[in-house]
Design brief:
about 50% helix; 3-stranded antiparallel sheet; mainly alpha; flat; single chain
């Protein structure tokens, strides 16, 4: 998806950029509840800190956006840190898995059931290797370098340890043999459980990719991306605009000798300028009957010129009749989670999560901006996303679908 910034006053396109989704994308229910409970106090503290500053309504709206975004990101970061602590705490080894499966773990914790079983098999291989190095004496069972208590913290081996302590007459070789027998039994059971576990989607995906790779066709790259998009839940389309057609010339075909139209392809840094030129050409076409539009607008005007209210009075009526609290509250309820944000960086879902006090402050700021007609300059910048249609040539700019990100989460 190709993205450019376009000013409402038809200035030159802004720099090419990546538009991130709002921070609400990463908020689960626990984070949302914490955000709702604490954001009012954080916002009040920020307002109190700026009490001596004379800020316009636009600047105060920018402050509100900044406070909500910063607090939401902090809540998400805290939640992630908490999750990391739970995954790597004393009750759960850093290698991943449950505490009963974690001795000698490696790397990040596995997520699927089959991967957890795979780790369990590998874990018992490692434990058996360490037990083989044990002399069998009870005195050094806890002193070897096996991450603290070592393999003896495994429930089955811990139970064996208690049994061995109750039988001091056993030889070291017998103790070691019994511990190895437990390890071998656990390894065998884990391996059997792993073999019986259904394969995950990732392994099925690998098989499909291998089939595509062995096909002797020229469409393999496209097939690969279609499969990946399907597995990741992405719809067809998208695609970055890295090249586009612009102009062309008649050339002689070397095979048939006929004149054919050869289109020029623009690549690299010139793509953005070429897209701007093409967009200007497309938008210059007057596809609407402007005479009919002007006639319709004339019908909406009052019969007498003096009936038209002055600008200030008209703005007052707009605030009083259209920008009511009930209308604003209804609009806030429609803010959706995880949408891409506009040029003002406002994630409207954070307004929706906020308590009534923050919501009403947001409403009053909008009223003041309209009443004073001092609109934020950033509201003039809309983000155009040039989405590719399924099956279309990605270099055909005019065949792409323009999606617009407006300020205020519109």
């Amino acid at each position: 998806m190709y993205i450019i910034s376009v000013n409402a006053h038809h200035q030159a396109p802004g720099p090419r950029e990546f538009r991130e989704r709002g921070v609400s994308t990463f908020m689960d229910r626990e984070v949302e509840e914490k955000f709702t409970k604490t954001v009012q106090e954080v916002f009040d503290d920020e307002v109190e800190a700026d009490a001596e500053k004379e800020l316009s309504a636009s600047e105060r709206l920018e402050r509100l956006t900044r406070v909500l975004t910063r607090h939401a990101r902090a809540a998400v970061a805290t939640r992630r840190a908490k999750g990391d602590d739970e995954a790597g705490g004393e009750e759960r080894p850093a290698g991943g898995g449950e505490a009963s499966e974690g001795a000698g773990g490696r790397g990040p914790p596995p997520k699927s059931k089959r991967e957890r079983l795979r780790w369990k098999v590998a874990k018992w291989f490692r434990i058996r290797h360490e037990v083989k190095k044990w002399s069998g004496t009870m005195s050094d069972g806890y002193r070897r370098e096996w991450e603290g208590e070592g393999f003896w913290r495994e429930p089955n081996l811990a139970q064996l340890w208690k049994a061995l302590e109750a039988q001091p007459q056993l030889a070291n070789r017998e103790r070691r043999a019994r511990a190895l027998a437990v390890c071998e039994r656990e390894r065998r059971d884990a391996e059997q459980e792993f073999l019986l576990c259904p394969r995950t989607g990732g392994e099925k995906l690998t098989e499909v990719m291998q089939e595509v790779a062995t096909e002797n066709s020229g469409n393999n790259a496209r097939r690969v991306f279609e499969i990946l998009n399907k597995e990741m839940g992405r719809r067809a389309g998208g695609g970055e605009l890295v090249a586009m057609y612009e102009g062309g010339e008649w050339v002689t075909c070397q095979t048939t000798g006929e004149q054919v139209w050869q289109r020029h392809v623009v690549r690299g840094d010139e793509v953005r300028d070429a897209a701007a030129r093409r967009g200007k050409e497309i938008n210059a076409r007057r596809e609407a009957d402007m005479a009919a539009v002007e006639a319709l607008l004339a019908m909406t005007k009052p019969a007498r010129a003096e009936a038209q209210p002055p600008g200030v009075e008209g703005t007052g009526r707009l605030v009083a009749n259209a920008l009511t609290w009930s209308a604003c509250e209804a609009a806030i309820r429609k803010f959706k989670k995880g949408k891409a944000i506009g040029s003002d960086k406002l994630d409207g879902y954070l307004i929706r999560l906020s308590p009534r006090g923050v919501q009403r402050e947001y409403w009053r700021l909008l009223q003041e901006i309209v009443r004073e007609e001092q609109y934020p300059k950033v509201w003039n910048d809309w983000i155009a996303m040039m989405a590719m249609k399924p099956g279309e040539d990605p270099k055909e700019l005019e065949r792409r679908r323009d999606l617009w990100l407006q300020p205020q989460h519109l």
